[in-house]
Structure formats: structure tokens, C-alpha cells
Known about the structure:
Helix content: 25-40%
Distance between the termini: 39 Å
Largest sheet: 8 strands, antiparallel
Amino acid sequence: xxxxxxxxxxxxxxxxxxxxxxxxxxxxxxxxxxxxxxxxxxxxxxxxxxxxxxxxxxxxxxxxxxxxxxxxxxxxxxxxxxxxxxxxxxxxxxxxxxxxxxxxxxxxxxxxxxxxxxxxxxxxxxxxxxxxxxxxxxxxxxxxxxxxxxxxxxxxxxxxxxxxxxxxxxxxxxxxxxxxxxxxxxxxxxxxxxxxxxxxxxxxxxxxxxxxxxxxxxxxxxxxxxxxxxxxxxxxxxxxxxxxxxxxxxxxxxxxxxxxxxxxxxxxxxxxxxxxxxxxxxxxxxxxxxxxxxxxxxxxxxxxxxxxxxxxxxxxxxxxxxxxxxxxxxxxxxxxxxxxxxxxxxxxxxxxxxxxxxxxxxxxxxxxxxxxxxxxxxxxxxxxxxxxxxxxxxxxxxxxxxxxxxxxxxxxxxxxxxxxxxxxxxxxxxxxxxxxxxxxxxxxxxxxxxxxxxxxxxxxxxxxxxxxxxxxxxxxxxxxxxxxxxxxxxxxxxxxxxxxxxxxxxxxxxxxxxxxxxxxxxxxxxxxxxxxxxxxxxxxxxxxxxxxxxxxxxxxxxxxxxxxx
Length: 565
């Protein structure tokens, strides 16, 4: 959930007075890191996942003892917790045998701390009746006037009480926006959902920028494959993913910034929420495909260029820094910009895009990193491990074969919309590059020189599995990469199971979590074909989730027969 510094949180009116100070010193902090570490190279591959787990049915905070196998952090709500491997995994192929085991360990560690009746832990995107009356235990009522959320549906007590950042962050989004959050999904309130994120350490800054761009293109594809959020506040919705809902829930733009009123108090009309797809590529190959009109701060851009940053990277950070800080602690207003990055991370970590480019922390052995943020979390550790393995292996294939997946960013944005639609895996078509060979970076005068013949609409089946004589497919490329590296039999077997799951999801042979949920609801004897998810349906669905995640019940439509069968 980003930076969790301790201190005395300022109100929005107080924070706003220091917005320019935070932006100015945030850029100075980045410049110090960049100029110190821009030539750092030969870092080895390290990676890890972030799974956010949902504890049901009570609302409470769990304090875990720390060990070197799992790391725990509080999350936005008091029924969520973020778990990561205690140490990052590395470039050794046998580490693919560790992902799922570590996820199981984290799940088991939480379960050991749940002792009350009806308490369990699930990796799901959202509880089906979250925001409905009586959805918490003990029961808390919303406070539409005078509370933190000011929500008609969501009680303040559901917010994590363990750190002041969360309540301050929530209140400041609403106060900065000037109105309550409004999300255009029928019967939906504003709240947060669970995601799965994967971070990679690159060997250099140039490799990190290259991977950032390439993975941004596949973000909509993997979002559709991982779709797991068809229910919102007790109703089946005409969406399968949580992305657009989260984007709305943290949209702090004022009416002026949304283009609804002339600019008067604000500086920019901003096309997107803080939580959205990327708006510019970072690598030299990406210049000609960055066809979105980028909104950025010219003064910050010049400050970056004068500090030695190339124009493309300067535009990226000048774009992120059009935003205001959402939280600020009194004790951290004035900092040593050569020793701290709190102001930089204040803005950086509250731009929640499909990809995040992450500089090394100061005085750390950590290198240049990229974070992939587009996947819905899955029900089981096997499924979550499969998506993490796929993303990691895809980065290896991209680097090994010098692939170029780039298409115009405007088409990536269109793909993001398609990815969130119902049954996008089987029904949708996505813009994708026809040939994946790395191409020239020559452009015309304005930086754009994209030939529309370079890409076309494809099914996810074609993109992932390939089509003989027409398109190689991402999984066949990964398998080709694996054939050229040393992989022991046990690891190869594990990876094959993961790739098979993704391949069968892409072909439509297996269902996405969202489609599986829809079928469960449709067959439930209490369902009246009215999109309403009653308490009984919700209970039965969550109970089934629990049995599946514990391995007590199979789900062949989701992930085939048990692997030990």
C-alpha cells in the first residue's frame, strides 16, 4: 500500500500548502538517486509477489511474528493484509518450485492466527456483499455525514486502524476532489479490491525501462486472463475485473481537472485517475508508440532535464508529479534530500498505474526495478503462482529474444477497456503486434511514426497460444526460451503445469474466476435471475471458495483435475 512512515498526519488543507514543497524536493531526491546510480549495472534478476489476503468474516488486525520466509504489512482495510516472500527470489530456475510453497506458507500462517468460529482467509478480489447492510461482524453502520468515508454503504470501522496513513489518505482524496467518490457501476459504493503484483529487479536502468514498456502491452491480456470480480456490492455487474472500479475509488481529480469546469484553481485537465494505465513508454523503442497527449509539469520537466535526465524519462516523472501529495506527516516535511526519498515516494507510490518504474532506495543493495500491477488475485496458491511464473518467464523470453511487443499506447488503453468486459478472454479481441522482432527506433519529427500494419486485432487464444503460420504466441516463446536453458526435471514439471493452466484459460477450455463465479450464482437454487446476490448465495459462494483454497474441493472448470491425480 505504499509508504508507511510514522508521524502526525496533516489535514488536506495543511497538506495542500506543502504540495509544491513535496514536488520540488521529491524531484531533488530522485535526481540524487539517478545521478548516483544511473550507471549501476549487472544486478541479478530478483523478483517477488505481493498477495493481499482477505480475512473473513470478522474485521480485525493481525500482528504477525516476522520470519525470513514471509513478510507482512497492514493494508487499507482491517480485514486485509499484504504478504510477500521474506526474501526476494532470484534468477535460479529452481526458485519456480518455491513460489507456490511460499504462498501456502503465508496462507497457513494467517490461518494459525484465526481462532474464532467462521474465521478463514481467502485470496479474492472482493467479498460479494461488501458494502451491503450487515456485511461486517460485529455490525457497524456507515456514516454518510461526518465520517472518514462519508459513504452510504461502507463503515469507517472497516478501515485499517493500525496506521494513520489510511484514514488520512481516504479523507484527503474526498476533500481534494470536492465531492464524494462516484463510480458508474450500478449499485456500487467506493471501496478497495485485492490485487496481485509482481516486482522484478533488472540488471540496469535501461533494461528496467525496456521491460516496463513491454509488460505494459501485456497488462490488459493478463488482466483479462485473471478476471475475478463480477460481483459488486451484492449484484452481478457487467464487468469481470476490478480495475475500473479501483480507478474510480481513488480518483481525487476536481471537476476542473476532469474537464467539467474551466481551469481556475487547478493547473491541468487530467485525462486519467491516479489508478490507470500508463501514459508514456520509457525505452528508446517506445518513443514512436507514445501517441497519447501527455499532460506534464513543464517546470518539473525542465528541472529534470537540467539535472541530467533524458527527455523521455523526464516527461514520465513530470507527468507523475502533476499530482498532489495525498498524505503528509508533520515530522517529514523537511528532510535531507540526499538521504531520504519520502517526498519522491509520496507522489511515486500514489500513482497506481499498470506498471511502476522503481528507482533503487537510497543506501540500499536493491537495483532498478519494475512492478507489474494488472492482475486480479486468484482463489488458490496454484493459480496465483502460475500467473507470477508466467510474468517472470515472459520477462526472460523478452530479454533473451530481444522481443518488441510495442503498439501505440492509445491501443493499449482500448485493450484495457476490453479486458474488463464480461468474458473478455473468449469474447474480446485485442490489438497486438503481428511480428515480435525488435525494430528500428527511427521516428518522424514529432516522435510518432507507427505503421498501422504492425498490429491487428487478435483473440487472447492467439496471443497466448499462437496460431500456426501466423503468430508465435507468448507461451510457445517461453517454451522456446526454456528449451535453451538448464532446467531440472522437477522444475520443468512445475513450470509446465503453470503454463498449461494459463494456456487452457486462454483457449477457453478453462474458465476465469469471474466466469466460474457467474456460473455458480446462476446454478444456485436461491438465485432469481435478477443479478441479486443474497446472503445465502454469498455464504455458499464464500464457503465454496474456502473449501477450494484449502484443497478440500476440486474445481475442474477453473484449473482442471487435481495435479496428483
